[in-house]
Amino acid sequence: MSSTPTTPQNPETGTARVKRGMAEQLKGGVIMDVVTPEEAKIAEDAGAVAVMALERVPADIRKDGGVARMSDPDMIDGIIDAVSIPVMAKSRIGHFVEAQVLQSLGVDYIDESEVLTPADEVNHSDKWAFTTPFVCGATNLGEALRRIAEGAAMIRSKGEAGTGNVVEAVRHLRQIKGEIAKLRGCDNNELYAAAKELRAPFELVKEVAELGKLPVVLFSAGGVATPADAALMRQLGAEGVFVGSGIFKSGDPAKRAAAIVKATTFYDDPKVIADVSRNLGEAMVGINCDTLPEAERYANRGW
Amino acid sequence: MTELSTPTIGVLALQGDVREHLKALTDAGAQARPVRRPEELAEVDGLVIPGGESTTMSKLAVVFGMLEPLRAFVRDAKPVYGTCAGMIMVADKLLDAREDQETLGGIDMIVRRNAFGRQNESFEAAIEVAGIPGGPVEGVFIRAPWVESVGAAVEVLATYGGHAVAVRQGNVLATSFHPELTGDHRVHALFVEMVRASAE
C-alpha cells in the first residue's frame, strides 16, 4: 500500500457538478411516488432508481382538495430508513423554508413542485442557496431555463399530474424539444432575440443552442400510467420518467412498477413493451384533461 | 510509430450515465456503443459499467438474461471498467446492500454502498491515481461507495480519506468516482489501453 498515492482531504460539496451529476446517474430510470415505507420498498423491489416521498399522490390531492404542503418529516424519515435508493421530496413553489427542512432531513433531491399549492405567486426558491439539488417542472424551454437560472439541477415536464393522462406531458416535452431544435439553427444575432423571447438568460440560451440539449437532465412527469406511456416519453426525448399516481392507484402496483421499469430501459423495443404490458390488471382510471377546470390545472402553476 | 488500434468498447446501457461514458471513450480513442443484450455484449472487446443505481442495474441484468453473459465476460478476462454503481457491480462482496443484490464479481474486494453518505455529502476532490501521469484527476463522488478491504491480488490505485477509491485486479478496473462527468478522460484512456493490450 505504501506506493499508493494519498490524497489530502479537501472535499467541495454542493457544486453544480455533483448536483447535476446526481441526476445523470438517474437516467434511463423510473422515479416513483410513494406515501409509505411499504410502498417505497415495493418501488425499490421493482427497480425504481429513486422514490418521491409525499403525503398523498397527486390523484388524491385532486380528490381531496384543500392546501397541499410538504410531507410530515416522520413520514420522510421512515421512507429514508426503508430503502437504500435515493429519496426525493416535494416543497411548495417559493416555500424555501420547506426546502430548508427537507435539506436538513437529508433528502437527496427536492422537487419544487406545482403539485403542491404554491406558497409564492411571484418568486420561485433560490435553489443556488442549497446543498441539496432541485428538480423543477417546465412546460416549455423558457420556463426550464428560468428554473435552471435559479439553480435547478434537473428538469421534468409538468404534464398534468394525477390524471393518468399523458397528453400534457407529451405536449410539454414536444414543446421543449421543438424549441431546442429551433435554437440549433440560430446565429448569435438571433440568439439575443431568442433569449428575449424565451425570457431566459442569454448565456443559457447560447449553451442550449451549442449543446442541442438542456445543460441538465430532462425527465418526463405527469400522467404516465402504462409501460407504453413511459416508452413513449423516452422516445420523445425524456431521459427518464417520474411516475406518480399511475403505480399505486393501479390494480397490481408491484407488477405495474416492474413493467414500467423494463419498458423504460427497452423503450425502443416494441416486443419487450408488449411482453411487459400483458396481464397488468387495472390501470388507474384517469381523467380527461379537457374537462379539468382551469383552477385545477397544476401545469399552470409556476411561470 | 505504429498505428494505434481502435478497440470496440461497450457501455452497459440498462440504466445510468451511459452517454457520458460513450463520449469519454470516443474521445479516448475507442469505438463506443451501448450494450443491453447478450448478442451486443458478444461484439465488444471491453465493457464499461456506468454510474447509476446499482440495485436497478442488477435487477435488470437478471430479468433480461444479462447476468450470466456478463459474468462469463469477466471470467474470460475481457477488460471491464466500473464507475460508482459499476464499482459495486464488479465487487466480489458488498456491505450495506440488499441481500438479493447480485454482482458480477471480478475484483476480490468488499465494497460499501453509499459509504461517503447521501447526496448532501456528495463532493468533488482532486485525486492522485497511480499510473495516471500529469497530476491529480478531478474526482466527482456522488453517493459514492468506497472499498472496505481488498485481497492480495488487488492493486489499490488511489485512496481518499483512508479508503481505497480506485482499484485494479487483472483486467478489471473500478473507481468510486465519475471521470465521465469531467472533461478529463485520462482514466478512460488508461482503460482503452487495457483493452488494446488485451486484444493483442
H and E string of chain B = EHEHEHHEHEEEEEEEEH
Radius of gyration of chain B: 15 Å
Task: Compute the number of structural domains of chain A.
Answer: 1
- Give the assembly state of these chains: heterodimer
Order of helices and strands of chain A, N to C? EHEHEHHEHEEHEHHHEHEHHH
Largest sheet of chain B: 7 strands, mixed
CATH class of chain B: Alpha Beta
- Number of self-contained structural domains of chain B: 1
Q: What do we call the CATH homologous superfamily of chain B?
A: Class I glutamine amidotransferase (GATase) domain
Largest interface: A-B, 44 and 54 residues
CATH topology of chain B: Rossmann fold
Mean pLDDT of chain A: 93
Q: Which structural class do you get from the secondary structure elements of chain A?
A: alpha/beta
Instruction: Tell me the distance between the termini of chain B.
Output: 17 Å
Helix coverage percent of chain A: 40-55%
Q: If helices are DSSP runs of H or I spanning 4 or more residues, what is the number of helices of chain A?
A: 13
Strand order of the largest sheet of chain B: 2-1-3-4-12-11-10
